[in-house]
């Protein structure tokens, strides 16, 4: 399995493309620039099987409908943010004047519980990691040693908690209980900024002192 980071949209949110040797792939958090993303997928001959969202803030969902319609694939989101997709007040887009309010059609699959998720030949674990937002989830590929953490954990930082449904203490608990328990050599594919590892964040992240 390979993965690629692709910053998209007005604030360069990281979209991730995870692919298997047969060229099938999953698209995580297509935040914008749909044409750029589709051109890359087509140029590389990739065959998307699904769109998975770590959460439903506007900068993670801007290209969802175009990519979904182009490839006729389903969208996954956590139940606590099911209504955020079509509500610019909840997804935050109405508060950012640099963009148009974003309304995305309902998701095809609702993530209700943690556990194993299998899509095509991809197998991952889903962890509910709220705090940045109520329905934030992280997707962990154990065999490959990769976790897609959305805006929960960054290199040297953590997600902001001053938006709707944010909770600082809950975020720290999510990071401690769900992410820092992963093997230390696990790569953390964050929603913004560079890739890091669990070990690096345990050793040097100033927001995690005391954990």
From TrEMBL:
Pfam family, one: Lactamase_B
Keyword Ribonucleoprotein appears in the UniProt entry: no
Named cofactor requirement(s): Zn(2+)
Superkingdom per UniProt: Bacteria
GO terms for MF: hydrolase activity; metal ion binding
Keyword entries, A-Z: Hydrolase, Metal-binding, Zinc
Keyword Cell inner membrane: no
Domain Metallo-beta-lactamase: 12-192
InterPro entries according to UniProt: MBL_Glyoxalase_II (IPR051453), Metallo-B-lactamas (IPR001279), RibonucZ/Hydroxyglut_hydro (IPR036866)
Annotated PANTHER family: HYDROXYACYLGLUTATHIONE HYDROLASE GLOC
Protein name (record): Metallo-beta-lactamase domain-containing protein
Lineage, broadest ranks: Bacteria, Bacillati, Bacillota, Bacilli, Bacillales
């Amino acid at each position: 399995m390979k993965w690629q980071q692709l910053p998209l949209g007005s604030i360069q949110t990281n979209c991730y493309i995870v692919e298997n040797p047969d060229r099938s792939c999953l698209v995580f958090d297509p935040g914008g620039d749909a044409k750029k993303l589709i051109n890359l997928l087509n140029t590389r001959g990739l065959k998307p099987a699904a769109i998975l969202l770590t959460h439903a803030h506007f900068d993670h969902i801007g290209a969802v409908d175009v990519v979904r319609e182009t490839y006729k694939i389903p969208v996954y989101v956590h139940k606590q943010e099911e209504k955020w997709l079509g509500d610019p007040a909840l997804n935050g887009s109405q508060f950012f004047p640099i963009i148009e309010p974003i309304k995305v059609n309902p998701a095809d699959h609702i993530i209700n519980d943690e556990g194993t998720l299998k899509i095509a030949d991809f197998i991952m674990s889903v962890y509910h990691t709220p705090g940045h937002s109520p329905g934030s989830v992280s997707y962990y590929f154990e065999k490959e040693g990769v976790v897609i953490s959305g805006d929960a954990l960054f290199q040297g930082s953590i997600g902001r908690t001053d938006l709707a449904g944010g909770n600082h203490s809950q975020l720290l608990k999510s990071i401690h209980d769900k992410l820092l328990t992963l093997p230390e050599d696990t790569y953390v594919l964050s929603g913004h900024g560079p890739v890091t590892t669990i070990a690096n964040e345990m050793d040097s992240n100033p927001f995690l002192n005391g954990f």
